[in-house]
Amino acid sequence: MRRQVIARRGGNISPMKSARDLVPTGPYQEQLRQFDLREIDAEDTHSLFHRKYMARLTRVIEVIKQELAPGSTVLEIGCSQANASLLLAEAGYRTIGLDIRADALQYALSKYQHGEFHCVTGSAEALPFPAETFDAVILGELLEHCAEPGAILRECTRPLRSGGIVVVTTPNGDYIANRKPLYDLEAAGSTQLTKYQFGPAGEDHLFAFTLTSLCQVLAAAGFEVVQRGYLGSVVYSDRLGRMKGMFSPQRLELLSGLVNRTPMLSRLLSHTLIGVGRKK
Fold first, then answer.
1. What is the pLDDT of residues 35-74, one digit of tens each?
2. Cβ contacts of 267 within 8 Å, gap of 6 or more
3. Is the Cβ–Cβ distance between 173 and 183 less than 8 Å?
4. Res 10 pLDDT > 50
5. Residue 276 and residue 48: Cα distance in Å, rounded?
6. Cβ count within 10 A of residue 269
7. Is residue 3 very low, low, confident or very high in pLDDT (cuts 50, 70, 90)?
């Protein structure tokens, strides 16, 4: 596939635009806008979609800032709305959002305001970048869509500089409400899985990882696992109704963080896994 490269540098110093201010140019862009309106730009800051998404996004950005100085290069694979890339660009990082769909990248660019942000069309299976290009790679909610997660992670090692990191988030297969089969290394790459991979909607997950299997697939791909844990929790559930409304968003974050850090609770009550691997 011929790649399309679009760059944005400079611009004004306003934060990226809200989805409420955008006019999509097609049905897929409208779908992405609806995701944004439920997630990063939600009016109801107590909603499950918003709290789960922000828990992931905030933690990914925190990891990048902890590990890398501004000016470092960051690749977000399967970026879709590219919110992590846009926010990191505003914080002084040099970011590239890669997606297989050009209309997704055009949507991301419509939100751009400032910083160094580039877009590239391409596939996670064959990254269109030379070796030793990036300091970090972000795989946010992507591996559960891939027939061969290990192959995707191995491909990530090539454009990563030595000592660079990969940051992975993915749904928690041990969560009490999970209905997806758990990741099976032996079944990975089967014809049936390959047929359905890389779908654009959230319901097309092929399987779910446990924290153990996520760390195993990272290690097998050549990464040293330097951080791992849980994000989000049942505390965010809309089923709590009025009880959840009694707490401020900040209090919800504190309660959810407590669940995430409690071994007897986190495995079953946390929505999301995070794993950070360092290229050896």
1. 999 999 999 988 999 999 999 999 999 999 999 999 999 9
2. 172, 174, 211, 230
3. yes
4. no
5. 25
6. 22
7. very low
Helices (H) and strands (E) in the chain, counts: 10, 8
Residues 88-93: contacts with CB under 8 Å, at least 24 apart: 88/61, 88/64, 88/115, 89/8, 89/114, 89/115, 89/116, 89/117, 90/15, 90/16, 90/114, 90/115, 91/61, 91/65, 91/115, 93/64, 93/68
**pLDDT tens per residue, range 64-106:** 999 999 999 999 999 999 999 999 999 999 999 999 999 999 9
Q: How far is CA 107 from the centre of its chain?
A: 17
Q: In whole angstroms, give the CA distance from residue 153 to residue 7.
A: 26
Report H helices in the chain: 27-38, 48-67, 83-90, 102-111, 149-157, 191-196, 211-220, 242-245, 249-261, 263-269
Residues in the chain: 280
Location of structure tokens 């000016």: 71
CA–CA–CA angle 219, 189, 166 (5° rounding): 35
Which pLDDT score, from 0 to 100, does residue 245 have? 77
Give the CATH class of 5-279.
alpha beta
Phi, psi angles (nearest 5°) of residue 71: 100, -15
Distance CA 166, CA 136 (A): 6
Run of H or E residues at 143: none
Name the pTM for this structure.
0.91
Distance CA 171, CA 162 (A): 28
DSSP secondary structure letter of residue 173: T
